[in-house]
Amino acid sequence: MHKISKILSLFLVIGFILAGCVSVPAQSPELSAEIGKQIVESKSAHVALLGQYMNEKRDRIDEFIAREWIPAFATNVFKQPAVEKEWGRIVHSNNKPERLEFITGLGSMLQNKINAKRLELMAPIDELEQLLRVSLNEHYDQMIAANATLTTYLDSAVTVKERQHRVLKFMKVDGKLTQYMSKADEIVGKIVSGRDAFEKNRGKIQGIIDQVRNAVGGV
C-alpha cells in the first residue's frame, strides 16, 4: 500500500508538470528514483518469467521425445537387417568384450541421433525466446532510460511540456509481448503432434517465428 501511494504521488507530480505547474514537490525525485528501482526489478522478474515459460515448452518437447520419438526411432534401428542380424549374433555370443563393444557403440550412435533430434526440435523455441528476450530488454531499457531522464528533470525542476511528453510516451507498456509469448504454445503443438510433425510443419513453424521477428523488429 505504501508503494502504491508513492507511485500515485509520482503520477500526480507528472500531471502537475504536464499541466504547466512551476512548483515541483521536494519528494518527487526520490519517488521517481524508487519507481526506477521497481522498473529494474520488474525487468528481472519478467525476463526470469519468460525463461521459465519457455522451459515449460522445452519440457513438453522432451516428454514427446522420450514418450514417442525415441521408441519409434529405436524400433526402426533394430528393424534394419544388418543391425538385427548383428544383434542376434551378439546376444548369443559368449565373447563378452565383443558384446560390450557392440552395445557401447550402438548406444553411442543412438544417443548421438537423439541429441541431434533434440537440438533440431528445440531450435524454434530457442529462436523465439531469443527474439522475445531482445524485445523485452529493449522495452525495459527504454522505460529505465525514460525514468532516469524524468528523475533528472524533476531533480532540476525542469517543467517543459514537450520534453516530458517525449519521455512519458516511452513508458507505455507493450501489451503485445504476452501475445507473442503465446506463439510458443503454437510452435510446440506443431512439434509434438506426431513423430514426423516437425518435418511436416517446418515451414509453418518458421512462418510463426518470422511473424514474431517482423513484429518485434528483428534481432
Fold and architecture overview:
Helices cover 84% and strands 0% of the residues. The chain is mainly α and 219 residues long. It has one domain. The longest helix is centred in the middle third of the chain and has 60 residues, at 96-155. The chain is elongated, with a radius of gyration of 28 Å. This is Lipoprotein.
Write a concise synopsis of the structure shown.
This protein is an all-alpha fold and 219 residues long.
Enumerate how many helices there are, as a single number: 8
How does the major sheet shape up? none
Say how many strands there are: 0
Q: How big a fraction of the residues is strand? A: under 5%
Radius of gyration: 28 Å
User: How many domain regions?
Assistant: 1
The N- to C-terminal Cα distance equals 39 Å
Structural class: mainly alpha
User: Any idea what the shape is?
Assistant: elongated
Which percent range fits the helix content?
Answer: over 70%
List the helices and strands and how they pair.
Layout: H1 2-18, H2 28-79, H3 81-91, H4 96-155, H5 161-169, H6 176-181, H7 183-191, H8 197-216
Task: List the defining traits of the structure above.
219 residues, elongated, disordered N terminus, Lipoprotein, mainly alpha, 0% strand
